[in-house]
Amino acid sequence: MTEQSPALDNLLTESRTFPPSDEFAAQANANADLYAEADADREAFWAKQAERLHWETKWTQVLDWSDAPFAKWFVGGKLNVAYNCVDRHVDGGHGDQVAIHWVGEPGDTRDITYAELKREVSKAANAFASLGLVAGDRVAIQLQMIPEAIFSMLACARLGLTHSVVFGGFSPTALRSRVDDAAAKVVITSDGQFRRGKAAPMKANVDEALDGAESVEKVIVVKRTGEKLEGEVPWTEGRDLWWHELVDGQSDEHTPEAFDSEHPLYILYTSGTTGKPKGILHTSGGYLTQAAYTHHYVFDHKPGQDVYWCTADIGWVTGHSYIVYGPLANRATQVVYEGTPNTPHEGRHWEIIQQYKVSIYYTAPTLIRTFMKWGKEIPEKYDLSSLRVLGSVGEPINPEAWIWYRDNIGAGKAPIVDTWWQTETGAIMISPLPGVTAAKPGSAQRALPGISAKVVDDQAAEVGHGGGGYLVLDKPWPSMLRGIWGDNERYRETYWSRFADQGFYFAGDGAKYDNDGDIWLLGRVDDVMNVSGHRISTTEVESALVSHPTVAEAAVVGASDPTTGQGIVAFVILRGNVAQDEAKGEEAITALRNHVAKEIGPIAKPRQIMVVPELPKTRSGKIMRRLLRDVAENRQVGDVTTLADSSVMDLISSGLNSGK
Ligand code: 6R9
């Protein structure tokens, strides 16, 4: 990847920059001196950030890296994570501040103050303790976005139980393998969940998953859909307990115990390129420090003033760090929304922003492109003037989507923070700082103060400005993963073997520096195509397609090709406001192919472009290119269990077959 292909040049032509306004800069949490301060003494910098938290016992050493790649941060320190996220704010006189404006999909709402959150978490902690759970035990949680999901996570943290949240849409097989791997003693779920206006069973899936699961002693069931759910909720006497029967009668007082800074806080499974999912392990002190630090600076969050909304699901790491731990540690008032963005109508998010005067909004590029597809007329109907910071996470954001987001959601002025990080990194690593950075659409730009990232070539040598290669993290960071649950060897192998001599963490992402030395993420290294010997990233072709006025979303894969090695096959979704039949026609498709050639170069011209109604995505919004490659190569479509909506592949295949 050292040699520069024409495709890699393309993103460099994106030269628009958006410096912060004086007004924003004057009030910003961050300032440019933070970088120098962190560079001067990294450990002192992190020690200062750790002071954001309440420590029962102070640490004696900031970082112990002697057993690399197994890090220990804030060695000897003791704290309770839930105390830091809840009780501390009540003790500080903020018990009446709303912690969570919860909005249910059917329209029911609940405002939860910090005082109430403390009572709910205490009751749940007393309930879990009554089941005999002790610090170190694992609890699996498969819940939709309801308050009990957050109460459960915090109650676990309060007792030193290690939670493993499994996304609500995952299949019984996926749940079972995660329950078994962590040997979870308790599983928390609900009777059913509302999805697009309908009640769908949850408990029935959990029962299917747990058939014969040996570690599981109790299943706690939150009643959410109740009468609305068709059929009986299957029940195993002696094992299953209703949440309200177990929790409601408990005392709402509970004294938290302080745990070691390195006490395991949670396991979160993420899919590997092959084989079984990896249980990414996060611990307490360093994790919470970086979650709180990044939430404070990257979102310019002001407690008591801002209303923050992160649209992620708690089944994803973004929900852990930027709904539960970071914001609550920082005494945020936040919106938590249960449902999908188009239930009951496509303006639902904007309606919620208008109603609660949301000031910070953090979402994923896939959703921004979906909003583009629905059309700007929809957000135009709402008052979004409360918004002052916009965030993006999960994928590279195409410059066109970035500009659309800023213009149509951010009134042409809200700073956008494009935040790069991973389940493994635990918290944001590369991002502009609002009020400091002159933002560039499509680039995450620069490692945060205290963090070090580099783009290197195959030989681990840092590439020059304008060069592309692999993204590595060359220094340990507080919220880094502490391993893969039960598999130290796989941890070393997956992340630390590629650049073992240099001790770099291999992120698995392709990246490049532009001429100013800013970092552009180019997608997973396995998403790089090789067309006639030219390395072209899927991201770049997708960006070129989305920059065309008829295209809302695009996914690009490299399909094997007898002459060129790989050929570029693109799947596109058209924008809502274009004449669909015309835009699907041969002429329009040729125009699109030429558009890509013009934007990137003839080598990047897609061999084939297919217009589809939907794209296969995981719930965290990542396109599953593996499945599209199956379609492009005329294979039977592979495992779809991690898709947010598994019917999408049928929709794509049937659309294509009928179109031919
Ligand atoms: C937080 C999260 C991690 C992978 C990561 C990269 C992609 C995330 C990005 C981004 C470009 C961004 N990614 N944020 N790529 N720009 N701002 O998404 O965690 O689900 O573990 O995914 O997502 O490829 O390696 P996770």
UniProtKB/TrEMBL annotation:
Keyword line: Acetylation, ATP-binding, Ligase, Magnesium, Metal-binding, Nucleotide-binding
Sequence similarity: Belongs to the ATP-dependent AMP-binding enzyme family.
Protein known as: Acetyl-coenzyme A synthetase
Coiled-coil zones: none
Start and end residues of each AMP-binding enzyme C-terminal domain: 540-622
N6-acetyllysine modification, residue list: K622
Domain Acetyl-coenzyme A synthetase N-terminal as annotated: residue spans: 33-85
Positions of the AMP-dependent synthetase/ligase domain: 93-485
Catalysed reaction, written as an equation: acetate + ATP + CoA = acetyl-CoA + AMP + diphosphate
PROSITE patterns: AMP_BINDING
One Pfam family it belongs to: AMP-binding_C
A GO term from the CC aspect: cytosol
Family annotation (PANTHER family): ACETYL-COENZYME A SYNTHETASE, ACETYL-COENZYME A SYNTHETASE 1
UniProt GO BP: acetyl-CoA biosynthetic process from acetate
Binding site for ATP: G394, E395, P396, D418, T419, W420, W421, Q422, T423, D509, R524, R535
Cited CDD domains: ACS
GO terms assigned for molecular function: acetate-CoA ligase activity; AMP binding; ATP binding; metal ion binding
Protein species of origin: Amycolatopsis albispora
Post-translational modification: Acetylated. Deacetylation by the SIR2-homolog deacetylase activates the enzyme.
Cofactor section: Mg(2+)
Function according to Swiss-Prot or TrEMBL: Catalyzes the conversion of acetate into acetyl-CoA (AcCoA), an essential intermediate at the junction of anabolic and catabolic pathways. AcsA undergoes a two-step reaction. In the first half reaction, AcsA combines acetate with ATP to form acetyl-adenylate (AcAMP) intermediate. In the second half reaction, it can then transfer the acetyl group from AcAMP to the sulfhydryl group of CoA, forming the product AcCoA.
Residues annotated to bind Mg(2+): V546, H548, V551
EC number(s) on file: 6.2.1.1
Residues given in the record as CoA binding sites: R195, R196, G197, K198, T318, N342, S532
